[in-house]
Amino acid sequence: MNTTALMVGVLVAWLIIYRFNKAGYEKRQWAYSLLLATFPVYYWVFAVYAKDGSALLNEILTGVFFIATAVVACKASRVSGLLLLALGFIGHGVYDVIHLSLYRDSVAPSWWPEFCGSIDVLLGVYMLYLLHKYTPKTNTS
């Protein structure tokens, strides 16, 4: 395990959350959706850089799922959108970790699973926090 990449990923996730909060992006449905939609592009760039057409095709096919999740989350209600984003980010974190198991020759750098995976999972957990924060409370008494 690459602890340095993991810790840098945690720092980057914190900075993203901090900046989005300060800029007021959390109140805009599109902000985190757009961020999720960009994550597959990194794998596309890695495949192009490696000049691996087969990897590029695999990454495009997988990436379409995360982009579609982001688009649906952007158009959904606040609660549904946050839930979809949480699932999308955490799902992408899992994808980062199991990527090498899915494809024999990973085009991503060896430190990528810890770096990107930690960002993804922390953003997903933060979406769950926002979901809890913005879900209307019902009075059962």
From TrEMBL:
It comes from the Bacteria. The chain crosses the membrane at residues 6-21, 30-49, 55-74, 81-98, 110-131. The keyword Transmembrane helix applies. Keywords: Membrane, Transmembrane, Transmembrane helix. This is Uncharacterized protein. It comes from Neptunicella marina.
